[in-house]
Amino acid sequence: MKIPLHHSVIFLATDAEELGLYGAKAFVDTPVVPLDKIRLNMNLDMLGIGDRRNRLYIGGDIDGVISEAIAAIETTASFQVVGRFPRQPRGFGSARRINYRNASDHGVFARHGIDFLFFTTGDHAYYHTEGDRFEQLNLALFGQATEAIWSLLKHIDGSNLRVQK
User: Fold this and answer.
1) Do the Cβ atoms of 50 and 121 come closer than 8 Å?
2) Of 30, 55, 56, 111, whose CB has the highest number of CB atoms within 10 Å?
3) pLDDT for residue 27 is more than 90
């Protein structure tokens, strides 16, 4: 039996994130619904390769409801859900530190007062290189991550989440 979600969900695929978050900016500049009706932005970014720890990182506005849901989706020893932004590895690509609160499309939504959750399996050796190809994907990790995010979305949807504005 399929149970529908209680809230509407917009699936938005953006482009040109690396060039200046142009896709996310275009959406908030001409939204399909008023921005004050958007309760939460769930940004899925770099879910396919991960690091040797097989972790799904969830950063952002994590309150008690979301922390409870995160605990509920930790399902196997080979896959760990971590309620924080990933730590940038030493010597990773640049001496510049990544500010994960603004480093992806969710930063655009946050600047418009929309709470967010940022999902990633972490940085990897192919990040922003020509080696970042389909063949590098860890399909098992990708599947586990997307199932965990779906589980979290259903939990949040059914929780009467009260987002502070």
Assistant:
1) yes
2) 56
3) yes
Virtual torsion, Cα 76, 77, 79, 84, nearest 10 deg:
110
- Residue recorded with tokens 């949807």: 157
Residues 106 and 41 sit within 8 Å (Cβ to Cβ): yes
Q: What are phi and psi of 55, to 5 degrees?
A: -115, 145
Quote the pTM value. 0.82
Q: Which residue segments constitute the domains of the chain, with CATH numbers given? A: 17-157 (3.40.630.10)
How many C-beta atoms lie closer than 10 Å to residue 91's C-beta? Answer: 7
- Whether 105 and 45 have beta carbons less than 8 Å apart is answered as yes
* N-terminal to C-terminal alpha carbon distance within the chain: 35
